[in-house]
Design brief:
Chain lengths: ~325, ~325
């Protein structure tokens, strides 16, 4: 994979110097991970849409959008943006916190406006604006939903994502929210936010446990695999599956009143749009936008599902 | 998994016990015993069917990989190729659906697409290796990146989903059974038997081994080296197509996360099974055992709480190395 990242770098270097610079326009650089999974696909979709919209609205703004397939490439992308486009503001969703902290701090020291999205840097105070996803809230909202749906307690299994601080924060808050409710977690394994892995893990949970009341799939991709495994087993003891993130197919099933998918919890990839919009407003109007802005994770139910349904998005 | 059986089976003079074959089988038996002790449901019909069906994708691919590796080659592109073919198949089936309606026809068209695409992709790898003379590692590293990007691009970064009606019709190809045995298991078994025949009873297998052992000697022995090597990549590509035909009906979707790391699992299974990574000797049955060992580890870890899930990868790695140690330990002393 490293080799591929270097190939990407070579391409980026080759393309960089060709770009001409417009002295009047202010340039906003947007650096995000490539669309390698569903959520990141949504992220790319919303980033592109926002850039197109803002370029039409503000003729004085130029945008550079770069997608990286790894932290090393992202660092290179950012260095190229500074060197060849002399960006006035950077909107970055760090691939990983540690390797990006130094390079982003260097950009901030130049006096460039820095907006960090979703994943924080490992050092505080670098960014001017932090648009954060709410992982703690994601776990808490999910846990409260289980507590509401299973007032007499019950046996649940949990599928976790890729082992990361994001996943830990979600699971800890889920556990805290169901504490004392009589809900018992009888199995917890990593499905890596992947449909196929989640399918295999759920099949094994079904072999292992004769009674499962509900499943916290904690992600909509994993919920797809979980549902297929349950359907194959023909079991009727599972009352519902709760995913998360807000994939359009799952939001649609919530809206249609599917009893197996009665709700969803958002972790919207559209937060990149919020970040780009706020950065643009700050640059063109001087309205104060610095600080921290948290995009709450909210419960999607059949009543409000249509507010969260984006039929054109790939996610 | 103690070193004891290794000592016991040290080959006596005169009559040789083939430890290459026994090592992986012993590891498999040890895993089955362990699984049975850990969970009473381990040997249930449902669990066995799940594990074997799940193994089928990697298994079908690993049989083809055995030929490629035996002939001294390597293919890193199979996982991405599977994802690309799955995506292509879904696009084609969704496209013809309005014209054909739900039925056998769109599924047959999809299957033909998968086989043709697999064969084409395999031939491309093979031609770049034999005609252009580029190392297989580099060729397939390149095509790996290409197919992975293509499927991401086709899915627009998201997920390609098979039309819901067709998924219901096509589903039995993964979930359906004949006399209680699911389709993926039957296809995997058929591919393994055919592979064994080709490897042991046909000139093709002997030629692969000859090329892997020494390309020069094989050439002097009038083996058509380039044609045989091209054929190994083509067969592997075709088998990736077959595996994809079984994969798509399972979840009816393909994304850039499909088939991730399948290439490494397939190569690991081949090596665990006793095929030599630098070529010259291949064992189809060993590969089948290797595939089963890999999927049983995952299954057993899911059936128990004894190990922290953070350590799953470590356990898998340790068992892979142990299985190969058991197989090589005695061979090294001979």
């Amino acid at each position: 994979m490293k080799t591929l990242a270097y190939l990407g770098l070579a391409a980026a270097l080759a393309a960089g110097p060709v770009l001409a610079q417009d002295d009047d326009a202010k340039v906003i650089g947007v650096s995000i991970p490539a669309a390698t999974h569903g959520w990141a696909g949504g992220l790319n979709f919303h980033a592109q849409q926002t850039v197109e919209r803002l370029e039409a609205v503000y003729p004085g703004l130029d945008f550079v959008l770069a997608t990286a397939s790894g932290p090393a490439q992202q660092v290179n992308d950012i260095e190229d943006m500074v060197a060849t486009r002399n960006i006035d503001a950077l909107v970055v969703l760090p691939f990983e916190s540690e390797p990006l902290t130094g390079p982003v701090a260097a950009v901030a020291e130049r006096g460039t406006w820095v907006t960090v999205v979703d994943r924080g840097l490992s050092q505080e105070g670098i960014e001017d604006l932090y648009v954060a996803g709410d992982n703690a809230g994601f776990g808490r909202v999910s846990g409260s939903y289980f507590a509401d749906r299973l007032p007499d307690g019950g046996k649940v299994v949990v599928l976790r994502g890729i082992p990361t601080t994001i996943d830990n924060e979600r699971v800890e808050n889920f556990q805290a929210a169901i504490e004392g409710t009589g809900i018992e977690i009888i199995g917890m394994e990593h499905g890596n936010w992947n449909r196929d892995d989640a399918f295999a893990v759920m099949q094994d949970f079904l072999s292992r446990h004769p009674q499962i009341d509900a499943v916290w799939a904690s992600d909509d991709d994993m919920a797809v695999g979980v549902l297929a495994a349950i359907e194959q087993s023909g079991r009727s003891d599972i009352q519902f599956v709760l995913g998360g993130a807000g994939m359009k197919e799952m939001i649609k099933r919530v809206g249609d009143g599917d009893p197996m998918i009665p709700a969803d919890v958002t972790y919207p990839p559209g937060m990149i749009a919020t970040a780009i919009e706020m950065t643009a407003v700050g640059l063109v109007s001087g309205a104060p936008v610095s600080g921290r802005f948290t995009i709450g994770s909210v419960l999607v139910t059949p009543e409000n599902a249509d507010q969260f349904y984006y039929p054109d998005s790939p996610f | 998994m103690s070193p004891a059986p290794e000592e016991a089976a040290r080959p006596p003079r005169g009559r040789r016990i083939d430890f290459h074959v026994l090592g992986p089988v012993l590891a498999l038996i040890a895993l089955v015993v362990l699984g049975t002790l850990i969970n009473g449901n381990f040997l249930s019909y449902g669990n066995i069917t799940n594990v074997l069906s799940r193994s089928a994708f990697i298994g079908i691919i690993a049989v083809g990989m055995t030929f490629v590796i035996t002939a001294g080659g390597l293919d890193l592109s199979v996982g991405s190729m599977a994802a690309f073919i799955a995506g292509l198949m879904i696009l084609v089936m969704n496209a013809v659906l309005p014209a054909t309606g739900v039925g056998v026809l769109p599924v047959l068209i999809g299957m033909a697409t998968a086989l043709a695409a697999g064969l084409g992709a395999g031939l491309l790898n093979g031609l770049l290796v034999t005609r252009a003379g580029i190392e297989p590692f580099i060729v397939t590293l390149g095509t790996m990146g290409i197919y992975r990007s293509l499927v991401t691009w086709m899915a627009d970064g998201g997920t390609l989903s098979l039309s819901f009606d067709l998924r219901g019709f096509y589903g039995p190809v993964y979930y359906g059974t004949v006399a209680g045995i699911s389709w993926p298991i039957l296809v995997f078994a058929a591919v393994a038997v055919l592979g064994e025949i080709a490897m042991r009873r046909m000139p093709f297998g002997r030629h692969c081994a000859a090329i892997g052992a020494s390309e020069k000697v094989a050439r002097y022995s009038a083996v058509e080296v380039d044609r045989v090597r091209l054929a190994t990549y083509a067969v592997l590509g075709l088998l990736v197509g077959v595996a994809t035909i079984m994969y798509v009906p399972r979840l009816g979707s393909a994304s850039s996360a499909t088939g991730l790391l399948w290439e490494l699992e397939a190569i690991a299974a081949v090596i665990i099974g006793g095929t030599v990574l630098k070529g010259g000797s291949g064992r189809i049955w060993g590969t089948v055992v290797g595939v089963l060992i890999l999927s049983l580890i995952g299954n057993i870890l899911n059936l128990t709480d004894m190990v922290s899930p953070y350590l799953n990868g470590a356990i898998q790695g340790a068992i892979i190395i142990l299985a190969v140690l058991m197989q090589r330990g005695s061979a090294a002393r001979e």
